[in-house]
Known about the structure:
CATH class: Alpha Beta
InterPro entries: AB_hydrolase_fold, BD-FAE-like_dom, GDXG_lipolytic_enzyme
Number of strands: 12
Organism: Rhizomicrobium palustre
Helix content: 25-40%
CATH architecture: 3-Layer(aba) Sandwich
Protein name: Acetyl esterase/lipase
CATH topology: Rossmann fold
GO molecular function: hydrolase activity
Structural class: alpha/beta
Distance between the termini: 47 Å
Order of helices and strands: HEEEEEEEHEHHEHEEHEH
Keywords: Hydrolase, Signal
Oligomer: single chain
Low-confidence stretches: 1-28
Strand content: 15-25%
CATH superfamily: Alpha/Beta hydrolase fold, catalytic domain
Amino acid sequence: MTHIISNTLRMAAATLAFACVLAVPSLAQSDKMEPIAVPAQPNAITLNTGPLPGATVQESWHSQYGSVFARNVTVATLTPFLPDAGKASGAAVIVAPGGGFMTLSMQNEGWDVAKALAAKGVTAFVLKYRLRQTPAGIDDFGKSMAAMFASVGKGPRPSNPTSADDVNASLGPQIADARAAFALVRSRAAEWHIDPDRIGMVGFSAGAGLTMATTLAGQDAKPAFIGIIYGSMAPVAVPADAPPMFVGLAADDPLFGNGGYGLIDSWRAAKKPVEFHLFEQGGHGFGMYPKKTTSTGWFEEYVRWLDMHGMLSPKK
């Protein structure tokens, strides 16, 4: 059974990678992938999960849609974005960008989200988790993606992990990186003026899948609250200590807009707090891109939700 589920998640990753091509901002930006130098990341903290086993291709970056992406990440890092002194609420969020576990949308679904959270007084951390290996050259990478796209529509839709074995078989390195990120933040909570009981996680697409996996089988990670932004809506077995969940999805999302809302039903059946925003338009991968669709307002709604749960004010 684990083998079957693992194969399903591998197809899911391929489908999610296809979604990267669909994540086009409203502004006229080039959809061509252009290699760029690995940017300086002076505040990035290397996590203790070590290099990706068996990796032969090293990390590289490219630009697309006026944003930047990382590929072939072999060593995980966590980059803090701290609020101004005196504005910090004590709450923190670990941000998991998406990209089908083959790339990471570091700017649109990572840095820009973290900066916006820090401006609201929430300490944010961008998780650059390890990825599955892809061809080193950008042209070869593009060809491999094109070949994969040809069969994506014939496979199953992405689903959520259903057990710890499922997670470990399919997302072993990534779940280890998420656990290490939570451990690091908690170990330095006093230094960063963070309440260790108010550390949440928000993820986008594949990062939403990692957020759900961390919630279901992350052992000691235990997010205090989670955000699932255009992630799988498949039902899950909700743990007894499941946290409040915020979900943002566009009805015209080609991956998840027409497959039902089992995840929401699961949370409600378990009598756990859930807020669900289904935007009429937005597609997949809208993130922080400025678009003319109401999906652009997801972040403001998410901030209101954080405020409702007391995450924008110091704990009394």
